[in-house]
Amino acid sequence: MEVNKMLKGKIPGPQTGIEVKKSICTMCDPMTQCGMDLYVKDGRIIKVEGTKENPYNRGGLCSKGAATRQYVYNEDRLKTPLKRVGPRGSGQYEPISWDEALDTITEKLNHYKREYGPESVVFFSGYAKWHRPFLHRLAYAYGSPNYLTESSTCFQAMAMAQKLVFGLPGGPDLKNARCVLIWSANPFHSNTGNAGHLVDAKKRGLKIIVVDPRITPTANIADIHLQLKPGTDGALALAIANVIINEKLYDAEFVQNHTYGFDEYRHYVQQFTPEKGEEITGVPADKIRKAARLYATTKPATIMPSASPVVHHTNGVNNYRAVFSLAGLTGNYDVLGGNHVAPPSYLYVSGGFKTRLGEFTNLPGQEKMAPRIGSTQFPVWEELVDEGQAMELPNQIQSGKPYPIKAMLAFGINYRMWPDPQYMAESLDKLDFIVNTDIFMTDSCQLADIILPVCTSVERSELRCYAQNYVIYTQPAIEPLYESRTDVDIIFDLAQRLKVDDELLNTDYETCLDWILEPSGLTIEELKKHPGGMRVPHPVDWGEKKYLKNGFKTPSGKMEFKSKVLEKYNEPELYPALPAYIPPKYSQDATPEMAEEYPFILNTGSRLPMFVHTRTFRLPWTKALRPEAAADLHPADAEKLGISQGDTIQLKSPNGAITVKANLTRMVLPGVVHMYHGYSHADVNQLIEADYLDPISGYPGYKSLLCKVEKVAE
């Protein structure tokens, strides 16, 4: 074959000079690191494919991963460190050297530590998440309790709900399950590799129940779809429990010997008959009965949760407590095929091996530090999560209480993830000093005093693991573009300039990884021999029903239908001990007068398959799939309002209004509006009050508030 034809076909080999290099995509983080084959010629990526041997994505890539070259070579890439020379938000910056940038940061952080105490500096991690253990350790080594992350709105509240019920979270064991209850997860849009495994399992006979307000691709393959009104998840779970208990389908042995509070729970769920469930949720009573019987009698059965939709309500943690209680009620906790307890190996994922990650991040002496941000306002979060609650950050900046916040060292912060993001932006403007690292010049970067350019996953090395007992340590497929550096290089450089008293932070990334990996027997040297990843040689067999020997890591030592953690506060309106159903703070049930003026349920942040927050807005391929900010409406609602596809409409709440396009789709329920988040010119989170939060977790009620929809005259 002629070389020109081989080059045109991008065929690797010595004749063409094209080499295939292994890497991973981290645009979705941290559960979905798809393996990628990068075709590289002359130091530039010319083609991207999925890695077939990677057991997670098995050669597939979603629209985001397919657009990797547009991401890596985007014209908006930050090229050099920048220093602000004009007012905040003016966009006036000048390039500086890395030494000047890091020296300035070091001088400032030492100043605030000396003058106001280390707690006056916030260490914040947004996207990506690969550097988190090292930033966490740096914050504590510096002396600040204020390590905050975007997990203040994602994942942690779901984990809190499981901890309140079981003590330890149990993940869905899809491989061994005969039935799966998928509760507001849509892996076809948010976890595409897992979607493939779900389809395979369905072919093997897996029964699928999907709970989701939208008719998603996942709902389309379900045996039963329970299409509920947003925010009523807890009522639906309690109605399912009503059927399971009253028809004696529950696991009597597990309930009798391993649970606390069952009698009160059983009494409470009596009011949630399937008919009452239908009245609250909109799901037909017969469907509730059918789903309850299928889940309870098809063992083993597992619950597949989502990271955030169910907990993005003002009643979010209790919603999921009611859901996860079903796993205990049916004896499907910590069994193969149920919600199996396999501790995380690295970055939230269980890869079949043990590490010292917890020991790495939890340095001694934390009890002597000042209270973390949000610890008073959200005491349950403080008890269960080793981070500050970032939703309280703007309030503490504004008030200066209980102590002032002066500076922030941020890695990929996006202030638009806060409810009422303008309030957050105004709060950040009050800080004396802000550093942000990012790949692109974002709206949040425009608020920073120093901006540091970081590289993408294909330009760095990082450790990841997979639930399929697989682990990878990548090598850079190309050199970091421009003057960009890796996040961890910045962290280690700052640690040494700050002269923190920490032996490990005074080494380097790979030395620390070897220390973390020591219990597993894995080493970075060995992992480097397997550029596409490797099977874990001797994966840990975690076994089943570990509670028989160890009990549950709850105050009672049992699975808790009634939470002793919440019970001790003796404030049932804020912290109900039972998984009580309380309607969303603003809803047709809780605020009928408001609903008269604002009759639609507004659901923000509903996942679209081509976007992850705002990270892929700027990519031509992904942006072309939805070029303009649009709200999803049911055609029946649109007809009543005289709205046609593509019309300009206004979404309005008591907190504000935005103007967007109308997208008519039968995926959504009548009476509900779904709007994606993060648009600078149409930020739907601006419609949400800053204090519209779940009192248990501090999570914003993104998925259920009230709005009105009006057509805008052209």
Describe the structure using short key phrases.
714 residues; Rossmann fold; Dimethylsulfoxide Reductase, domain 2; 4 domains; seven-stranded mixed β-sheet; 27 helices; globular
SSE arrangement:
Layout: H1 3-8, E1 18-24, E2 35-41, E3 44-50, H2 63-66, H3 68-72, E4 82-84, E5 93-95, H4 98-116, E6 121-125, H5 132-142, E7 147-149, H6 156-166, E8 171-172, E9 179-183, H7 187-190, H8 192-203, E10 207-211, H9 217-220, E11 224-226, H10 233-246, H11 252-258, E12 259-260, H12 262-269, H13 274-281, H14 285-297, E13 301-304, H15 316-329, E14 339-340, H16 357-361, H17 379-384, H18 393-399, E15 407-411, H19 421-428, E16 433-438, E17 450-453, E18 463-466, E19 470-473, H20 487-497, H21 509-517, H22 524-527, E20 534-535, H23 547-550, E21 559-560, H24 564-567, H25 592-597, E22 600-604, H26 620-623, E23 630-633, H27 635-641, E24 648-653, E25 656-664, E26 672-675, E27 705-711
Parallel strand pairs: 6-7, 6-15, 9-10, 9-13, 10-11, 12-21, 15-16, 16-17, 22-26, 23-25
Antiparallel strand pairs: 1-2, 2-3, 4-5, 4-17, 8-14, 18-19, 19-20, 22-27, 23-26, 24-25, 24-27
